[in-house]
Write a structure and sequence with these properties.
Layout: H1 3-22, H2 33-67, H3 73-96, H4 102-124, H5 133-158, H6 171-197
């Protein structure tokens, strides 16, 4: 396995690590008070740092693959899979925390299933589809929105506000809402673009 593929795999491995620091542990009555208190106070900031590291691997794996001519079918698959699972997992965590509406996440997940379906049809015909530029823009807007929302509790602490979920409505959270809505809009646009440009796979 080459270096870009290892970076994509690392991004996948960092997903559960990120979630561990985002969500308090509540498993059939088991709730470690000390750990959950630590998560409530500092977990999201740690999760943000881990998420940023994971996001950077998305940039570097593509750069290295192109510069060293290490682009492979496995790399295209792992890169796309890692992006989708990373974003969707964190957004589901935000739903659990009451930060975002599940309807928006439903739109994002629906788009990803649709694109994955088209890629499966193309793969059956021997065509491996790499991520398009508009898809990369979509992923970038999603990552920016997620990173900002992860830093919201810290920003609220700086301004002397309550930083525990659910967060209060104020300028800090409104900015997060706007960034997230922009990412949803880009998700829809990129999905439609992908669908239109690959409609031949659906019209057979």
């Amino acid at each position: 396995m080459n270096l870009p593929n290892k970076l994509s795999l690392l991004r996948i491995i960092l997903i559960p690590v990120t979630l561990v620091f985002m969500l308090p542990i509540k498993i059939y009555g088991f709730e470690p008070a000390a750990w959950n208190s630590f998560i409530a106070d500092h977990g999201m900031l740690i999760a943000a740092v881990i998420f940023i590291i994971a996001s950077l691997t998305d940039f570097f794996d593509g750069q290295i693959a192109r510069r060293r001519n290490l682009i492979t079918d496995l790399g295209k698959f792992l890169d796309s899979l890692a992006d989708k699972v990373l974003i969707v997992s964190v957004l589901l965590a935000f739903i659990a925390l009451g930060r975002i509406s599940p309807w928006f996440v439903f739109i994002i997940v629906l788009r990803e299933f649709m694109i994955s379906g088209i890629r499966m049809i193309a793969s059956a015909k021997g065509v491996v589809m790499a991520a398009k530029m508009i898809g990369k823009v979509k992923t970038t807007t999603q990552m920016i929105a997620v990173i900002y929302m992860m830093f919201e509790p810290t920003l609220l602490k700086i301004f002397g506000m309550d930083s525990h979920y659910p967060l209060q409505i104020c300028a800090v959270t409104v900015i997060g809402d706007v960034l997230f809505i922009i990412s949803v809009i880009m998700t829809v646009i990129s999905g439609l673009d992908y669908l239109i440009k690959n409609k031949n796979y659906l019209t057979e």
